[in-house]
Design brief:
Pectate Lyase C-like, Elongation Factor Tu (Ef-tu), domain 3, 3 domains, ten-stranded parallel β-sheet, about 15% helix
Length: about 600
């Protein structure tokens, strides 16, 4: 029987209650509802990332966001390991000098070689100062170079004679084994490709997918006469692994573990190659590095002389964490500079994580490739997380080769970039060369700037440098210029940034010419509203969705520079308050007050009527 069939009888005490008795409760309830609605109205989502987003979602104009969640060590599916051992102590076991007086290169390299010969391990540099005059090399998987902490272990590279261009080299090598042409164009966002012959491939294989930089490819991007360096060459664009193979299908089918971020055309000789000999499971962690030249000697070295602190080459599933740079106190060094010109360079790699590192200032910041503190070259799915670049020419840069794809900067800081050959004008972090695809700058701070432009003939014909890349919830005091090929996206950018996506092309000046051929102008959404953007981190939200944990809508951490100790401290600040923090705090406090006052009001009313 329906409950409405029963008579409802109010007690005499409640019957005697009148509107004035419950008026405070009504007012407080109304305030609570208003407070709740205000909190809800402040939160917003990008129209390209609705609550029910799935990969491939696009709006009526064809705009969409790539799935950036594949970036990082093992695609973000595993934490960076804490390798226990075996331990190869460079002091106790190999005679390195922790006072920094004697060259310890031979001792450190001997420990690396011993670990390599025994299947890997930790090459440990105890607390102390170490000197290396030539640098060290890791060429076997599973070796970790570890200090006792950035404040405790310091390694100075004092190489003033050789033309060696790196000081810690972690390198595999390219070794194509089997290849087959695509039978049909590879569709953007698809993981399945159709090929002429999939025999010779196996599940789990490392594969490279790419094509020739043909005249039609160049012309459809409007780059005839501009792109020159790689014309006619086969270039790797995508670095993946094989998930499944269907030899029964005609054409044969190969499924990859990551989606294609651009269309691969048979017209351009698109091909997939099985390859081997990546170096993997190597890391550099918990120490400080430096490699400046002696003060006043920079002009003694040719422009072709580079000094990279760390170079990864043909590596996968490797990492650098808790590494910073320092200014040597020894006689002859300038007290400001930490590095000669380059910090960490990543070449032809995939799935690396560079985490909580601080590099710079750089001594040399002139043209010709100097002053690049974090440089990614022809690499896929690299995650730079909580990293600081200070005082380079381009603190963060993606350049030279085609094939910079799917890379992510998460909560990174770029500051004091300067062009020493341009009267020390602002030097932005940038996309430098050859159409970087599907890059995400997520919750970053740019106090100098970032450029994603058509650089035309600069740098040997850089041309269009970026496409389908996203600036998400970034802040800072710098200048962001974005004129990407096709669509680019700037979502939730802070009002403190000068964001320039549109210019008058009728009579452009030199910088406005960098926008030519990039229409439609890039999409800008939610300027000045990053604090209320849901989610605060696109990468973390997409990763949680892919791993089945649901969308991450929690608060982000903003990079804050600790001027004394040097590294990035990641702290929750007002500018990074999550959409939940302010709104839900007000909601909870209001709700508690309503309940307390409601109880008080009822008890008071009952007491008066009794």
């Amino acid at each position: 029987m329906c409950a409405s069939h029963y008579p409802v009888t109010l007690s005499p005490r409640l019957k005697r209650m009148r509107l004035p008795s419950i008026l405070p409760l009504i007012v407080l309830t109304a305030c609570f509802i208003f407070n709740w609605s205000q909190a809800q109205s402040e939160r917003w989502r990008s129209q390209l990332y609705p609550a029910d987003w799935t990969p491939g979602y696009e709006d009526e104009a064809g705009r969409f966001l790539h799935d950036f969640s594949y970036a990082g060590y093992h695609k973000g599916e595993r934490p960076i390991p804490e390798v226990d051992g075996p331990i190869y102590d460079v002091v106790d076991d190999y005679g390195a000098d922790p006072s920094g007086q004697r060259d310890s290169t031979t001792a450190i390299q001997a420990a690396i070689d011993a670990a390599s010969a025994n299947g890997g391990g930790v090459v440990y540099l105890p607390a102390g100062d170490y000197l290396s005059k030539t640098g060290v090399t890791l060429k076997k998987s599973g070796v970790v170079l570890r200090g006792a902490g950035p404040e405790a272990t310091r390694l100075l590279f004092a190489d003033f004679e050789s033309q060696k261009q790196w000081h810690i080299l972690i390198a595999g090598f390219e070794n194509p084994m089997v290849e087959t042409a695509l039978a049909e164009d590879g569709s953007q966002l698809s993981k399945v490709i159709e090929v002429d012959d999939a025999r010779g491939f196996e599940v789990g294989d490392d594969v490279d997918l790419g094509w020739v930089i043909t005249d039609p490819f160049i012309e459809e991007h409007g780059m005839a006469g501009t792109w020159k360096a790689h014309n006619g060459k086969w270039m790797t664009f995508f670095r993946a692994n094989v998930v499944s193979i269907d030899l029964e299908a005609g054409p044969n089918r190969i499924e990859l573990d990551v989606p294609l971020r651009y269309q691969a055309k048979v017209r351009d000789g698109a091909m997939i190659r099985r390859r081997t000999n990546y170096i993997e499971e190597c890391g550099v962690e918990n120490l400080s590095l430096a490699n400046p030249m002696l003060d006043g000697t920079v002009d003694d070295y040719p422009q072709s002389a580079y000094r990279k602190l760390i170079e990864f080459r043909d590596a996968k599933n490797c990492w650098v964490r808790n590494v910073r740079t320092f200014a040597p106190e020894a006689e002859g060094y300038h007290p400001k500079y930490h590095v000669y010109d380059k910090g960490i360079e990543i070449v032809r790699c995939k799935r690396l994580t560079i985490e909580n590192c601080g590099i710079g200032p750089a001594q040399r910041r002139d043209a010709g490739g100097h002053g690049y503190l974090y440089e990614v070259v022809g690499a896929n799915d690299v995650l730079l997380k909580g990293c600081k670049g200070i005082g380079g020419r381009h603190n963060f840069t993606f350049g030279w080769y085609f094939g910079n794809v799917g890379n992510v900067l998460l909560r990174c800081l770029s500051r004091d970039g300067t062009l020493s050959d341009w009267n020390n004008n602002m030097g932005p972090s940038d996309f430098h060369h050859s159409l970087a695809m599907a890059t995400l700058m997520d919750s970053c701070t740019f106090d100098d700037g970032w450029h994603a432009l058509n650089r035309g003939s600069m740098s040997g014909g850089a041309g269009h440098t970026a496409t389908e890349s996203v600036f998400w919830n970034c802040d800072g005091s710098g200048e962001v210029r974005s004129a990407q090929y096709g669509w680019g996206y700037l979502i939730g950018m802070a009002s403190s940034l000068e964001v320039i996506t549109e210019v008058d092309l009728e009579n452009p000046n030199w910088i406005e010419k960098r926008y030519i051929g990039t229409k439609p102008f890039d999409d800008v959404e939610g300027s000045g509203r990053g604090e209320q953007l849901v989610p605060q981190s696109l990468y973390e939200s997409q990763l949680a969705l892919r791993l089945g944990g649901g969308a991450v809508e929690a608060s982000a951490l903003r990079p804050v520079l600790n001027e004394e100790s040097g590294p990035l401290d990641l702290v929750k600040t007002k500018s990074a308050v999550a959409e939940s923090d302010d709104g839900y705090k007000r909601l909870i406090i209001g709700g508690v007050l309503v309940v307390m006052l409601a109880i008080f009001g009822l008890s008071l009313a009952i007491r008066k009527r009794s």
